[in-house]
Amino acid sequence: MSEGKEQNTKYDIEWIQLMTEAKSLGIDIEEIRDFLHNQIHR
């Protein structure tokens, strides 16, 4: 069970880094959400 927790923490850190990088590039969170939604629902 702790292995799953470590995996989640790793993804959380990666997600935070991604969001931080996106903000620094001027990309809106909504744009990312829309993009991901469109990728999933093709």
From TrEMBL:
GO molecular function ontology, one term from the record: protein dimerization activity
Positions in coiled-coil regions: none
GO BP of this protein: regulation of DNA-templated transcription
SUPFAM superfamilies: SinR repressor dimerisation domain-like
InterPro entries linked: SinR/SinI_dimer_dom, SinR/SinI_dimer_dom_sf
Domain named Sin: residues: 2-40
Keywords noted in UniProt: DNA-binding
PROSITE patterns, A to Z: SIN
Signal peptide: none
Name listed for the protein in its UniProt record: DNA-binding anti-repressor SinI
Organism for this UniProt entry: Niallia endozanthoxylica
Gene that specifies this protein: sinI
